Request: fold
Amino acid sequence: MLIEDLKNTIRQVPDFPKKGIQFLDITTGVKNHEAFTDMIDFLYDQFKDKNIDYVAGIESRGFIFGAPLALKLGAGFIMMRKPNKLPAETISETYNLEYGSSTIHMHKDAIEKGANVVVIDDLLATGGTAVAACNLVHKAEANVVAAAFVIELTPLKGAEKIKNETGVDVVSMLKYDLD
Ligand code: AMP
Reply:
């Protein structure tokens, strides 16, 4: 599909979850088989030659893209989850949101030292979530090959934040001039 047609599969919902936020709703994208296939194929092409051991998906929409990508790459899939979801011993990272803070966890034994990992989420906004995810992989002494997203809100400069704070490069498919 053309990029513009792909973007048209993603519904925009104003003022969700609160006033002033333009929510990019991927439910309408992934229910379209051709669009979903193009998204996974784009991501696959970025990483097929990079010896990826694991794709680490950020709960919850990162799981939707991360699991099929991992299968296609011949890699394993790792879950980065909200507190009190993972059953075994975890490591965690807390990061700031506009109001308050949030924490993500990963099983302590999820990733071997030196493994090559792609961190993935549906959308890059300010980059705070992805920085925390990259920090978790680095805590496990593994490499983050890239942080990958289907959607990037470019004016928020999340890619710059990720690069500055973690040294990790960003890959994104659909760039929006929204903040
Ligand atoms: P951030 O940490 O600011 O990069 O926020 C990224 C996380 O928040 C991702 O998990 C996104 O799914 C979600 N998110 C942030 N802004 C939006 C938006 N405008 N539309 C949909 N999801 C969003």
